């Protein structure tokens, strides 16, 4: 199937690409957005991209794109943004940062990566398969109360307690090592079915967020983006669920108001600390046509801020 980057036209438009600008794509994936940025850059423009997934960085399409001298690709977590930008000597010189969060289609479609309950494979779910513990290892040792909390918090799963109990009982007999084993255990544990939603959807999302520290990564990179971007630089973030979107929305809201130090009255101009960003657009959603071609786009929400 042809790769369709989510909200492609909107992302490029909101980045407001300057021909000689410096751009960062924090989530290279299959490089769809990166290629779009390169296509709009002139000969002196630059694009740095990251992905924590070694398969994405070593892929044929990435290697082909690396022939372009304006492009660099690094195998990193995006929470290392500031370090990398510092070592490249580009602090406060960046014109735009793009984040298209979550997992890519090659990650979801490959049963060996263990992200999908629709495909049987090892229960891994690490975006970087060379680091950290797999979902199977985590499920072997996690405390029941912590598991309940992860399922509630990151999956918004109302049957968190039942599912956690079922996991603890099952693992006492034998380890849960495959996606199918976990999905069928959840199917048995959950008493009612939601329309159009597999009962394992929320649990898989929750475990994936936990083992990849996805929300911490996002909070870190947002903070760093203010120091990396130059005035007028754009921050464009595409989220796929309410937990991510809430973090982005609050960050932009908190950074776009004036903050003053409480307790100092009367308030003087010098006591007012200005935020680093202004909101550059209302929240954007994918169009009907895109959703018809790519159902994943239905849950996408784009937020855009401009560095002051
Ligand atoms: C939705 S895909 C991006 C798709 C991409 N925009 C395209 O056009 O092909 C998300 C990618 O970001 C990567 N990723 C997710 N979180 C990351 C993080 N914290 N640091 C670096 N890469 C991350 C994933 O490995 C995945 O390849």
Structure notes:
The structure is a single chain. The chain is α/β, with parallel strands linked by helices. It folds into two domains: 8-100 and 215-307, Rossmann fold; 111-212, Putative methyltransferase TM0872, insert domain (DNA polymerase, domain 1). The protein has 14 helices and ten strands. The protein is globular and about 60 Å long. The mean pLDDT is 94. The structure holds S-adenosylmethionine.
Shape: globular
Q: Which small-molecule species are bound to the chains here? A: S-adenosylmethionine
What value does the average pLDDT take? Answer: 94
CATH superfamily of the largest domain: Vaccinia Virus protein VP39
For this structure, what is the CATH class of the largest domain?
Answer: Alpha Beta
Q: What's the helix count? A: 14
Structural class: alpha/beta
**Proportion of helical residues:** 40-55%
Rg for CA atoms:
21 Å
Sheet-strand content, in percent, reads: 15-25%
The stretches of 5 or more residues where confidence is low (pLDDT under 50) are none
- The count of strands amounts to 10
Distance separating the two termini:
41 Å
| Biggest sheet character | 8 strands, mixed
Kindly give the count of domains: 2
What pattern of helices and strands is seen along the backbone?
A: HEHEHHEHEHHHHHHHEHEEEEHE
Query: Which fold does the CATH topology of the largest domain refer to?
Result: Rossmann fold
Report the CATH architecture of the largest domain.
3-Layer(aba) Sandwich
């Amino acid at each position: 199937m042809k790769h369709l980057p989510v909200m492609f036209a909107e992302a490029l438009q909101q980045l407001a690409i300057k021909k000689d600008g410096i751009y960062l794509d924090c989530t290279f994936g299959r490089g769809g957005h990166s290629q779009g940025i390169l296509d709009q850059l002139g000969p002196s423009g630059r694009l740095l991209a990251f992905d924590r997934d070694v398969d994405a960085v070593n892929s044929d399409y990435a290697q082909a794109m690396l022939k372009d001298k304006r492009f660099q690709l690094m195998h990193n977590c995006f929470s290392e943004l500031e370090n990398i930008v510092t070592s490249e000597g580009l602090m406060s010189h960046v014109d735009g940062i793009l984040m298209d969060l979550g997992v890519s289609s090659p990650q979801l479609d490959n049963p060996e990566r263990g992200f999908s309950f629709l495909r049987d494979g090892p229960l891994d779910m690490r975006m970087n398969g060379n680091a950290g513990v797999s979902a199977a290892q985590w499920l072997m040792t996690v405390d029941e109360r912590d598991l309940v909390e992860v399922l509630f918090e990151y999956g918004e799963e109302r049957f968190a307690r039942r599912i956690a109990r079922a996991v603890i009982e099952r693992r006492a007999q034998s380890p849960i090592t495959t996606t199918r084993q976990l999905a069928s255990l959840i199917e048995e544990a959950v008493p009612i079915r939601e329309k159009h939603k597999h009962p394992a959807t929320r649990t898989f999302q929750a475990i994936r967020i936990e083992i990849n520290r996805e929300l911490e990564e996002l909070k870190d990179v947002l903070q760093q983006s203010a120091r990396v971007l130059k005035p007028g630089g754009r921050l464009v973030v595409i989220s796929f669920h309410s937990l991510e979107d809430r973090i982005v929305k609050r960050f932009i809201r908190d950074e776009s108001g004036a903050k003053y130090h409480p307790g100092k009255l009367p308030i003087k101009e010098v006591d007012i600390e200005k935020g680093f960003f202004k909101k550059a657009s209302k929240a954007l959603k994918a169009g009907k046509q895109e959703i018809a071609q790519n159902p994943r786009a239905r849950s996408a929400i784009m937020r855009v801020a401009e560095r002051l």
